[in-house]
Amino acid sequence: MVEAPVADASRPRLTRERVLRRAVDIADAAGVEALTMRRLADELGVEAMSLYHHVRGKGGILDGAVELVLDELAAAADTSAVPAQDGGWRAAVRARLLAARTVMLRHPWAPDVMAARSVMTLGAARHVDAVVGLMRDGGLSYDLVHHGLHALGSRMFGFSPEIGEPDAGDQQGADALAGMAELVPHLAAMLAEVAHDDASTLGWCDDQAEFEFGLDLVLDGLDRLARGSSAAGDGRG
Question: Is 66 part of any domain?
Fold first, then answer.
């Protein structure tokens, strides 16, 4: 008579959260390309098929991993934001979005996955809701808040839109860069002078200085428009 295998009582029970947290750990350490069902199962000490009881394949793992990052982001924003009375709505919003960026810097794979997949959590929605509330408390109309959310874009979640990175390792890319000075002299001159050497980088052009520069431009512009509306009326729509 063959005895059934005895479960290892010392091994933690496999749960969806445990699966996803290990997936985040793998992506953080080795990049999202290294996050495979087989590697995840091996690190959890289970068969790959066991994962399907908790996630729907690689896509489900990516969605769930982003959910964890978004919930971490929302928690960081809630605890790091400054009260609106300590510098106005602009300072409070800025603090929330800089806190969001600290989370993205811990998970540099997340922006690309978020851009490719549509994932939202209640925590992330409440983060956006808090930003809207701060703007409204600062006297911005819902119409101006709506424009502001569009202008902020992905900066709401701590990263800037990328403009595309030339691949100098690719021969075609190298040839294009070599001919750049003649074809696009102003762009070539700019790239020759400007370098992104900030360690806090989420992409070719998304370093901390560029993130804060773009964020401040948007917030300063919204503040100017709100003050203009207030001078003409009460600024609320």
Answer: no
Which is more confident, 26 or 183?
Answer: 26
Residue 28 lies in a domain: no
Q: Is 201 helix (H, G, I), strand (E, B) or coil?
A: strand
Q: How many domains does the chain have?
A: 1
The answer to whether residues 211 and 155 touch, using CB atoms and an 8 Å cutoff, is: yes
Query: pLDDT tens, 141-179?
Result: 999 999 999 999 999 999 997 665 554 444 454 456 556
- Cβ neighbours for 98, distance < 8 A, ≥ 6 positions apart: 80, 158, 212, 215
Q: Provide the domain limits for residue 151.
A: 78-232
Rg for the chain (alpha carbons), in Å?
23
Separation between Cα atoms, residue 76 and residue 164, nearest integer Å: 29
Q: Name the region of 120 (left: φ>0; alpha: ψ -120 to 50; beta: rest).
A: beta
The SS3 of residue 83 is coil
Count the Cβ atoms, other than its own, within 10 Å of residue 189.
12
Answering whether pTM is above 0.85, one says: no
The arithmetic mean of pLDDT across residues 43-60, rounded, is 92
Of 5-14, 144-153, 179-188, 189-198, highest mean pLDDT: 144-153
Separation of alpha carbons 58 and 116, rounded Å: 14
Select from 86, 104, 13, 16 the least CA-distant residue to 55. 16
Q: The tokens of 222 are what?
A: 């919204």
Closest by CA position to 108, among listed 159, 167, 173? 159
Q: Is residue 34 part of a domain?
A: no
Three-class DSSP labels, 138-166:
CCCCHHHHHHHHHHHHHHHHCCCCCCCCC
